[in-house]
Amino acid sequence: MLTKRIIPCLDVKRGRVVKGVKFLDHRDAGDPVEMASLYNEAGADELVFYDITASSDGRSIMLDVVSQVAEQVFIPLAVGGGLRSVEDMHTMLMAGADKVSINTAAVENPDLIRQGADRFGSQCIVLGLDAMRLPDADPVRWEVRVRTGAGGGHTTGLDAIEWAARAVELGAGEIVVNSMDADGTQAGYDIELLRALSEVVTVPVVASGGAGNPEHMLHALREGRADAGLAASIFHYGTYSIAEVKAYLSANGVPVRPI
């Protein structure tokens, strides 16, 4: 049986790890290189590094910080933020990333997904999906947002579920879906969004946005059918350790990699 993955997320802004609520009001959480080392030792299954304002600032990702983080971890590292071309992807992979995550650039140029998959393999290409519920939609729908590092981001008019399915057809090998409504609230993942997504795509789905305790992660992995749970606040500020989360999941019948 495949184990479920527990993934800490480093949202990096101006060289520091930060965490906000619904992409706003960021507060400092620490040094990304030090935190990467700690998570590597703590039993994380993977690590995600997002340069959260690279796209909204119109600049390239912080290569030096990525390289330093990569030197500290011996688990898969996914890197995203401001990647606009196959050359950008190659640069990140050469810097030590195992996967590259694209969001804004993929929406603006969907063929970038295919180009990346053809060059590096689908296993390297992660679709970052920032999704916001559309108020009063019946049935419920979610819209894709881009350039979200500076706040609510830009509307796209794209249906999140339809876009995810198309991205997989183009070659995306994994989807990290972040509920913008739940992000940083620690009130639980958007289970309905996860389940809707998991029902239409054939690649692993990583739940992001809203983790406040191990039970939330259990619901995401079980009811939401996610393949992995990503969290930031509960790990960064010591509310729960990775070991505690894995112990809880294991006790409730979810297969996880032992620490």
Features:
12 strands; 27% strand
Q: Helices and strands in order, then pairings?
A:
Elements: E1 5-13, E2 16-21, E3 24-30, H1 32-42, E4 47-51, H2 54-57, H3 63-72, E5 77-80, H4 86-94, E6 99-102, H5 104-108, H6 111-120, E7 125-133, E8 142-146, E9 154-159, H7 160-170, E10 174-179, H8 191-198, E11 205-208, H9 214-222, E12 228-231, H10 233-236, H11 242-251
Helix pairs in contact: 1-3, 9-11
Structure description:
The chain is of the alpha/beta class and 259 residues long. The chain contains 11 helices and 12 strands. It has helices at 32-42, 54-57, 63-72, 86-94, 104-108, 111-120, 160-170, 191-198, 214-222, 233-236, 242-251; strands at residues 5-13, 16-21, 24-30, 47-51, 77-80, 99-102, 125-133, 142-146, 154-159, 174-179, 205-208, 228-231. An 8-stranded parallel beta barrel has the order 1-4-5-6-7-10-11-12, surrounded by 7 helices. α1 packs parallel to α3 and α9 (214-222) packs across α11 (242-251). The two termini are 17 Å apart.
